[in-house]
Recover the amino acids of this structure.
């Protein structure tokens, strides 16, 4: 197991297009998180899953954003009708899910550029 | 609402000098606090958490509930400590958790 992986690593798209990112967590981890990070800022929490259940969504997650984790393993984050303001690094993290002090292991991120 | 403030964007110190990276938080409940580090071209990783009361790579952080602070300290900075440091808080709302990160402090250790 090489840790949390994310694909693609980079995505360039035109405004108005839809994009989908994938995150593969560490295999025995029950919890999976999505964050967005823009230049000069820390990661901003978007949503998290406990197994396949999406438990919390930030107000940052507009109706153009949707995340799924259908079988409690990998997760996808889709952005519809992308806007230039969506340009950011999208980070995924996973943890065992035993309690909220679990260590979160981060992936390398997907850098999205919306032209 | 929960908030994490890291007042310094950049902290430059000489090798061997003490380091203190500041973190203040705002949270109405009992917080769980963490320090994460990101070295150049590496992914974000946990450095330490307050509940463990541990020292990692010579770094320690004490939770001061009176001052709502969780400053990261190291007595003698090393060049390999140069990195981006983020303070983070996990809070709970309605039974669910929410994680808030600070904006980060870039630590530059001058040889």
């Amino acid at each position: 197991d090489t840790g949390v992986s994310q694909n693609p690593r980079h995505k360039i798209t035109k405004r108005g297009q839809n994009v989908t990112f994938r995150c593969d967590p560490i295999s025995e981890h029950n919890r999976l998180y999505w964050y967005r990070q823009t230049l000069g800022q820390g990661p901003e929490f978007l949503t998290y899953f406990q197994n396949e259940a999406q438990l919390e969504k930030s107000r940052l997650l507009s109706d153009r954003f949707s995340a799924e984790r259908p079988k409690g393993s990998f997760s996808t984050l889709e952005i519809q009708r992308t806007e230039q303001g969506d340009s950011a690094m999208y980070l995924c993290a996973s943890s065992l899910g035993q309690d909220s002090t679990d260590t979160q292991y981060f992936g390398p991120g997907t850098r999205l550029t919306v032209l | 609402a929960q908030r994490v403030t890291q007042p310094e964007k950049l902290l430059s110190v000489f090798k061997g000098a003490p380091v203190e990276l500041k973190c203040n938080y705002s949270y109405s409940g009992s917080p769980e606090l963490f320090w994460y580090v990101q070295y150049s071209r590496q992914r974000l990783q946990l450095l330490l958490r307050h509940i463990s009361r541990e020292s990692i790579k010579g770094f320690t952080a004490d939770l001061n509930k009176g001052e709502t602070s969780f400053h990261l300290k190291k007595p003698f900075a090393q060049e390999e400590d140069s990195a981006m440091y983020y303070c983070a808080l996990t809070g709970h709302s309605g039974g669910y958790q929410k994680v808030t990160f600070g904006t980060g402090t870039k630590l530059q250790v001058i040889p």
The first strand of chain A starts at residue 5 and ends at 7. Chain A is about 0% helix and 50% strand. Chain A touches chain B at residues 3, 33, 35, 40-45, 48, 55-56, 58, 91, 93, 100-101, 103-109 (CB under 8 Å). The radius of gyration of chain A is 13 Å.
